[in-house]
Design a protein that fits this description.
Helices cover 37% and strands 9% of the residues. By secondary structure, the protein is α+β, with helices and mostly antiparallel strands. The strands form 2 sheets. The protein has a 5-stranded mixed β-sheet. The longest helix has 16 residues.
């Protein structure tokens, strides 16, 4: 009965032209990617052409300070304009909820409070790209450059072919390993030989057993490998009939996580937990971490600690399976009163080769500029000191060729965030696997009532 009522509620919202997000009750959401965007509350486009005088306050919504740091280093704000950062945490969908509230109020907001630009990541970018709350950036002169990685353009382009923003980074991800531990476990820290030893999941599991015998963990979090599986799925979380579905690769990850915890190959820590991050210090006992360039740039501070860290004792390889993780897109809010500045920021961090070069050289980023990346990849004198002099850009140039932006839904962030935590009790032996599924279905029913879970089909 609850499901019927929920579906009726969604239909009423659509008739009332208030576009919802798959029937969610708990958050107002701009745009439904499964239906035409006709939201009468979407802001008008009177300022979209960039012909009016620019506003004096530029508001940027974000979920952390990574891009803020790059912006303050490498972007020159036009004279007379104040930049205001509105930062809310991503966990639990808080950032999206706060952003949605601001976008819904965009038309009636005072000029100095309008959203001008906001950041989005891969797990939910489709929700905003397909909404009427984002601006077709071609109307302000932003076009897809030949040097942009195609998947970054695809992710920011709606079903009508309108590009809504750009990404300043490309995010092929790697297996990041501790050189000294690899030497102890495998007898070598050479990337080519380590890749050979870890080139598929069977080999990875075999090395995990060897690492355990030597007193090491293979990973520091039972969630560590999750994105390697989830970003290679062959079907979306929710199908065209709004039914929840588990991809076989998600099931494989569940099997691996259970085995790794049972055998002591990993820790029962979350991917962002302090217990995991402490393993990055020099006295840590973990061989492998997983992530893109932004991960060791922004998330491995413990490894870089001048007193307790192990700077230079790292290297990267593809690992068992190529994948990508995350990425930050800059989206233009419809109704911005600073369209010229929006364009200038987007161009600065994508086609300005000097700035993109600084992101690579100074920030350990993998830019969204193929020409810049290939310049460093082919430079025999370029290397990353954190990785013992290894040319990580050369590695990522090859890994970027494997990126597929497929099978994405607007629900991905919270489903991917919640699944590992819900299953932890099963991994630890506190509940059955069937109960873990039931608990996950309950979460989905409460958060997204319009999604039909297998227990209701």
């Amino acid at each position: 009965m609850k499901k019927v009522l929920s579906i009726l509620l969604v239909l009423v919202m659509l008739v009332g032209v208030l576009a919802g997000c798959g029937g969610k009750k708990s958050e107002s959401t701009p745009g439904d990617p499964t239906s035409p965007s006709t939201d009468s509350s979407a802001p008008s486009d009177s300022s979209d052409k960039g012909t009016a005088e620019e506003g004096k306050v530029f508001n940027i919504y974000a979920w952390n300070e990574e891009f803020k740091g790059f912006f303050e280093k490498y972007y020159t704000v036009p004279e007379g304009i104040t930049v205001n950062w509105i930062i809310n945490p991503s966990d639990g969908g808080v950032y999206q909820e706060k952003l949605d509230q601001a976008l819904m109020a965009q038309d009636s907001a005072p000029a100095d409070e309008k959203v001008d630009m906001f950041l989005a990541e891969a797990d939910y970018i489709i929700k905003y790209v397909e909404s009427d709350f984002t601006l077709d950036v071609s109307t302000i002169g932003v076009t897809p450059a030949d040097t942009m990685y195609k998947y970054t353009v695809q992710a920011a382009t709606d079903s009508k072919g309108r590009m809504k923003g750009v990404s300043f980074q490309c995010c092929p991800a790697a297996l990041i390993y501790r050189r000294s531990i690899a030497k102890d476990v495998l007898g070598t820290d050479d990337p080519a030989k380590v890749q050979e030893a870890l080139s598929d999941w069977n080999k990875f599991n075999e090395v995990a057993a060897k690492a355990k015998e030597k007193g090491y963990y293979m990973t520091a979090s039972y969630v560590e490998t999750y994105r390697t599986f989830s970003n290679n799925v062959s079907m979306p979380w929710v199908d065209e009939n709004n039914k929840l579905q588990f991809d076989p690769l998600i099931e494989t990850w569940i099997d691996q996580a259970k085995e790794f915890l049972d055998k002591g190959y990993t820790l029962p820590a979350g991917v962002w937990d302090d217990e995991k991050n402490q393993q990055m210090f020099a006295d840590g006992k973990t061989m492998c971490f997983f992530g893109p360039a932004w991960y060791y740039n922004f998330c491995m501070g413990n490894a870089m600690d001048p007193e307790k860290g192990c700077f230079g004792d790292w290297a990267i390889i593809q690992g068992p399976q190529p994948y990508f993780w995350g990425g930050t897109w800059l989206l233009a809010a419809k109704g911005t009163d600073n369209p010229a500045m929006v364009k200038d920021i987007m161009d600065t961090f994508t086609i300005n080769e000097e700035v993109c070069s600084k992101l690579v050289e100074n920030e350990m980023q993998f830019s969204n500029n193929t020409k810049v990346n290939e310049k460093y990849a082919n430079d025999p004198n370029y290397g990353n000191d954190f990785l013992g002099g290894q040319n990580d850009t050369a590695v990522f140039v090859e890994l970027a060729k494997n990126i597929r932006f497929e099978h994405k839904t607007q629900y991905d962030q919270l489903l991917n965030e919640q699944l590992p935590g819900v299953f932890l009790d099963y991994f630890l032996g506190n509940i059955t696997r069937e109960q873990a599924y039931a608990n996950f279905y309950q979460y989905v029913n409460e958060k997204y009532p319009a999604i039909v879970t297998p227990d209701e089909a």
